[in-house]
């Protein structure tokens, strides 16, 4: 299992640098289910956490071990001007000192670029398979969701709203991150 939080930050920053033209500065967010940041006039037109409101959920929790669940994350542009989302959000799930960086959903393109108009919302979804409760060999008791928008270095942190996530291996959860879609789709 990956246990160094700095490894995620470095990997996420490297991945996001490859997928977008602009980056912003920031620190981690809180454990709220919703957070907001003040608009900014940073150079470039990539959407940043400073320009957005985030909401995690409501989720479609997997009812039993082996079932699939989904956790949507909604991004709303509060900057007053259009910005772009190019690629896939960088997502990490953590359980105590262990962490896993999620791979994109099959078919999701890192080259897709969408315009997010002022006050418009887009959603990306974390799909996962529920693990068996209290079975550390087959599942992880995920407690935190961390993500960064493509091209932004600010990592946003939220409480994971669902039960355990199944492990594919010690280094990989049975979970993926989907592309940005207009909210409600």
Automatic annotation (TrEMBL):
Phylogenetic placement of the source organism: Bacteria, Bacillati, Actinomycetota, Actinomycetes, Kitasatosporales
Key word Ligase present: no
Protein name stated in the entry: DUF4232 domain-containing protein
Segments forming domain DUF4232: 47-180
Key words, A-Z: Signal
Keyword Signal set for record: yes
InterPro entries: DUF4232 (IPR025326)
Species this chain originates from: Streptomyces capitiformicae
Name of one Pfam family that matches: DUF4232
Comp. bias (Polar residues): 35-48
Segments passing through the bilayer: none
Region of interest (Disordered), residue spans: 23-52
Signal peptide: 1-20
């Amino acid at each position: 299992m990956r246990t160094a939080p700095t490894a995620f930050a470095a990997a996420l920053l490297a991945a996001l640098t490859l997928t977008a033209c602009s980056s912003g500065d920031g620190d981690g967010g809180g454990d709220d289910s919703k957070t907001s940041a003040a608009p900014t006039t940073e150079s470039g037109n990539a959407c940043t956490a400073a320009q957005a409101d985030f909401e995690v959920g409501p989720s479609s929790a997997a009812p039993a071990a082996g079932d699939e669940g989904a956790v949507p994350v909604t991004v709303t542009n509060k900057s007053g001007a259009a910005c772009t989302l190019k690629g896939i959000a960088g997502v990490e799930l953590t359980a105590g000192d262990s962490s896993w960086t999620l791979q994109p959903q099959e078919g999701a393109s890192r080259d897709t670029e969408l315009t997010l108009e002022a006050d418009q919302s887009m959603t990306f979804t974390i799909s996962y398979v529920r693990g068996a409760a209290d079975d550390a060999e087959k599942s992880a008791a995920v407690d935190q969701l961390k993500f960064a928008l493509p091209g932004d270095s600010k990592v946003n942190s939220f409480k994971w709203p669902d039960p355990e996530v199944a492990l594919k291996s010690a280094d990989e959860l049975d979970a993926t991150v989907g592309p940005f879609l207009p909210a409600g789709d």
